[in-house]
Amino acid sequence: MKTTLLRLAAAFAISAVPASVLAQDGSTITVYTSQPTEQMTAVIEAFNVDHPEITVELFRSGTTEVMSKLQAEVAAGQVQADVILIADAVAMTQLKNEGLLYAYTDAPVENLPASVVDPDMTFFGTKLITTGIIYNTDLVDTPPTAWADLTQPEIASGLIMPSPLYSGAAVIHVGTVVQQPEFGWEYYETLADNGAVAGQGNGTVVEAVARGEKPYGIIIEYMALNAKKDGSPVDFVFPAEGVSSITQPIAIFKDTDALEAAKIFVDWQLSASAQEQSVTQGYFPIFAGVAVPEGYPEVDSLNILPADFDQMLADDEANKQHFADLFGG
């Protein structure tokens, strides 16, 4: 089977493997993901409780690096992944448009909002993740309440954000913000002029703010709120104008040689068991009727900023270049 950077589960007895998997596909799948390694370890452990017959191998990095690895494999004619789980619907749309994804027409989507299901049934949202503002409670007496507050020189000079050159969530956030008439690229130009900086992924942001290297950051909510829960001197703001959102979609590659096992993994990711686990990891649920993590606002109360993902895909390279021109690459 395929070689990856990290093996997280061991194969179980051949007698436990479903006949359809044995006959057609084997029992090992390779997942490429941007979800944090410690979370994916727990995900795979929970999956293997229900499906010990399937071994899951993992390659984990930021979305941009995952996509770069995939593009190199496509060029070589040898894609190593069976399943992809990343925080970027724009990148998923790109993969679909390139004809790389499997149309899983009978995927169990009955509990998913229609807005997170690709019309061609090639990828499916697994959770709701929003982006807002983190701040260090030891350094900030009066926290910002709105995106507009971050442009103030005294705040921007202490602000760090993830880069869309590395983070899929940042691709969506930057793409969403620049589509808002009240912001556009002028918003980021003002941040840059007033001293804001970009790190790599959201992890660099939470670390910088938690350590007190920066008083403010732009970040996905679960990283900030998990850090707060673990005792870091941080808190999180859902800005007044609204939040950008991602759904961490999952998809199967069209040329997988482990199709049945890949379907089982996707089915599990779209199940109530996975939803309940994602809540324990600090994610908003995507299923109706599942309680949000403690301390989170109800999903219905969130003001989600509108986003045109087709336009975002068309603008993706230009957006990344403009961001790099402002904040470095």
TrEMBL record:
Fe cation binds at residue 222. The keyword Hydrolase does not apply. The keyword Signal applies. CDD domains: PBP2_Fbp_like_2 (cd13547). Residues 1-23 form the signal peptide. Pfam families: SBP_bac_1. Keywords: Iron, Metal-binding, Periplasm, Signal. This is ABC transporter substrate-binding protein. The lineage of its organism: Bacteria, Pseudomonadati, Pseudomonadota, Alphaproteobacteria, Hyphomicrobiales.
